[in-house]
Amino acid sequence: xxxxDVYTNVPAAEIDRFxxxxxxxxxxxxxxxxxxHLGLYPxxxxxxxxxxxxxxxxxxxxxxxxxxxxxxEVDEVLAxxxxxxxxxxxxxxxxxxxxxxxFECEAAVSGDAAELAAQQMRLLAxxxxxxxxxxxxxDDPMYRGAIHHIAAVRLDVRAxxxxxxxxxxxxxxxxxxxxxxxxxxGRPSDxxxxxxxxxxxxxxxxx
Length: 207
Description:
- The chain contains 7 helices and 7 strands.
- The protein is of the alpha+beta class.
- The two termini are about 30 Å apart.
């Protein structure tokens, strides 16, 4: 991925807000033979680390046992646009809009039952805050078997790179025109894409 300055000048607070709003993140590890492995997981995030859990037999657990360094990535695919929205002839103007944040991490893996139960409660607090379940504890027979099969993974963030590709390389009026075209087209994510482009315009106007 190319990180041009125009796309990476994103305030830290906006990156944090974006990451916390996402439902799933991608863990990237590397196998012993150099093969990259990718998994998609629910997570919690406290600004310094992510927490996820994996099945103990997952190939990514073996990867992390050998190499603690890994990547965790969250993104939002927004829209693709046709070239003629920008130029009536130049096909190169066709493009895609997205928000992506990539974290370089160092992983710690634990099979401790109490730690796993506590982590599950933190995940449930995020994804099921309304309750509707029996609290997860290490000694509850209902949960003991499942806990035996998973591992708690903490991903301590060492570095972060963000790319919000939202037409910042185009003049504000062009972006406004694209946002209007997105709204008229009306695909499922087009309104979110339009709002993201308008966000760049409003942010620049405040400088």
